[in-house]
Amino acid sequence: MPTSSTLPPLGRPLPSHVHVTPSLETPAPRVAPLKVLVVGASGGSGRATIEALLDAGHQVTAYARHGAALQGWGPRVQVVEGDVLVPEQVDRAVQGHDAVIITLGIRESALRVRLFGAARTAMNVRSLGTRHVVAAMLRHGVRRLVVQTSFGVGETRDRLPRLYRLMFQLLLKPQVADTERQEREVRDSGLDWVIAQPVNLVDVRDEGLPCASARGEVQGMQVSRRQVGRFLAHAVGSSDYLGRSVALSA
Ligand SMILES: NC(=O)c1ccc[n+]([C@@H]2O[C@H](COP(=O)([O-])OP(=O)(O)OC[C@H]3O[C@@H](n4cnc5c(N)ncnc54)[C@H](OP(=O)(O)O)[C@@H]3O)[C@@H](O)[C@H]2O)c1
């Protein structure tokens, strides 16, 4: 199992400390189509992930609270409406899949959430939602779990630049605390898991995979949701990063 891997980002030379793993240096071989459940499908990362899964030939179930936010994907995406905080709904959604990708978060202004709490989403949605997904996966024998958290949490806590550390402490503290709990849920799950830790997410049309490092190395502090989505779609069908926390940057 590699300890670190990356794709050359858009022709820029790689720094010497970043290791390139052949399995990602060349286009990943297409794996047999999988049935993949995406939890958090209506968010920016969820949508980018669905697009990448479809590109890779997988079948997708998009799970979200409001199905109307998920129309327009066509017949290869099944939409299932449900709340990740309701275990019975999660249980029904997980059954019959080969893998689950979680891109849960709070779709509200971070400042508002910090000052007044989230208006429409529970503050512990990441950890409690993940706990429900894990329980359902264990019940139904679904083994592969890929979870998007954040760079600067868990294994990369000490690697965060000072300015971001301040932002985590002041602006994002409760959300970061819940992401820490979420990572523990994943690590303790006993499943075949991968934790993906992107740096700041942006919405630009970057091609290819991001720089992916299981040693917590990053090339910069931005990465596109589309690149992250491609990594998540890769991780459901590959054993490259099993049991690893992987920093993603561009
Ligand atoms: N923003 C960044 O720069 C950044 C950087 C690194 C990591 N991250 C992390 O990456 C993750 C995804 O970020 P994002 O900005 O792409 O996502 P996002 O747009 O905030 O989307 C979050 C998703 O979670 C869903 N969700 C929330 N509560 C739910 C519930 N009770 N039941 C079902 N679904 C629920 C939302 O659905 P609704 O439409 O129903 O709300 C939405 O689909 C987050 O954990 C975030 O912290 C973000």
UniProtKB/TrEMBL annotation:
Transmembrane segments: none annotated. Gene3D superfamilies: NAD(P)-binding Rossmann-like Domain. SUPFAM superfamilies: NAD(P)-binding Rossmann-fold domains (SSF51735). Residues 40-236 form the NAD(P)-binding domain. InterPro entries: NAD(P)-bd_dom (IPR016040), NAD(P)-bd_dom_sf (IPR036291), Polyketide_Oxido-like (IPR051606). GO terms for molecular function: biliverdin reductase [NAD(P)H] activity; riboflavin reductase (NADPH) activity. This is Epimerase. It comes from Caldimonas brevitalea. The lineage of its organism: Bacteria, Pseudomonadati, Pseudomonadota, Betaproteobacteria, Burkholderiales.
